[in-house]
Amino acid sequence: MRRVSHISADMTYEILTALAAFAFVASITPGPNNLMLMASGANFGFRRSIPHMLGIGIGFTVMIILVGVGLIQIFDAVPVTHTILKVVGVLYLLWLAWKIAHADMPDTRDSTGRPMTFIQAALFQWVNPKAWQMALTAITMYAPERSVLSILWVALAFGLINLPCISTWTVMGQQMRRLLSNRLRLRVFNWGMAALLVASLVPVVYAEFG
């Protein structure tokens, strides 16, 4: 996808189309958010995962705005801060992968598993390496002059497109609940989701330290 060198106050149809396509591809492809939602759908169902989905959708939209209006300048001035965020994010995601792998059947008496809350999901975006990459790339490509209006256009595009995309992963997880009613199958599924979550970190780690 070509880099957009300039965006006027009123985005052209061509740029908006390219932005929408980028938001769709970035939102629908596998990543920490989607893998965790699939696991949440399988373990807790769609309804109980709604706060998790809303936290991601709204939290990431707010993140784009804050990154665009100021935080990206910190990374430009002090690049090491981006590296620190990536390290913190990777460590946190490894912990989440461990939690998913050891999740128990949600209806057992000794189960302590709970779906992620709205606030937890919103805050998670700030330690999610893919979310950072998506936000920085979107601002760089589609709001290079970093005007408030162009940043809001980018945030709006993701706000409208991201939530339906990530919801499909929750639905896929929910559809697997009947198959995963057996404790052993659920455990295998959770370990598989945890492994995929860890695998999603490989490109981030390789790009930073490889």
What does this structure look like?
The model is unreliable at 1-9 (pLDDT under 50). This protein has one domain (32-209). It is mainly alpha-helical. It has nine helices and no strands. Helix 2 packs parallel to helix 7. Pfam families: LysE. The chain crosses the membrane at residues 12-30, 50-72, 84-101, 151-172, 184-206. It comes from Thalassovita taeanensis.
The profile of the biggest β sheet is:
none
C-alpha-based Rg, rounded: 18 Å
Q: How many extended strands?
A: 0
The helix fraction, in percent, is: over 70%
Nutshell version of this structure?
This is Threonine/homoserine/homoserine lactone efflux protein. This protein is mainly alpha-helical and 210 residues long.
Architecture blueprint of SSEs:
Blueprint: H1 13-28, H2 32-44, H3 50-77, H4 80-101, H5 118-124, H6 129-142, H7 148-175, H8 183-199, H9 202-209
Helix pairs in contact: 1-7, 2-7, 2-8, 3-5, 3-6, 3-7, 4-8
Features:
210 residues, disordered N terminus, 0% strand, Threonine/homoserine/homoserine lactone efflux protein, 73% helix, mainly alpha, 9 helices
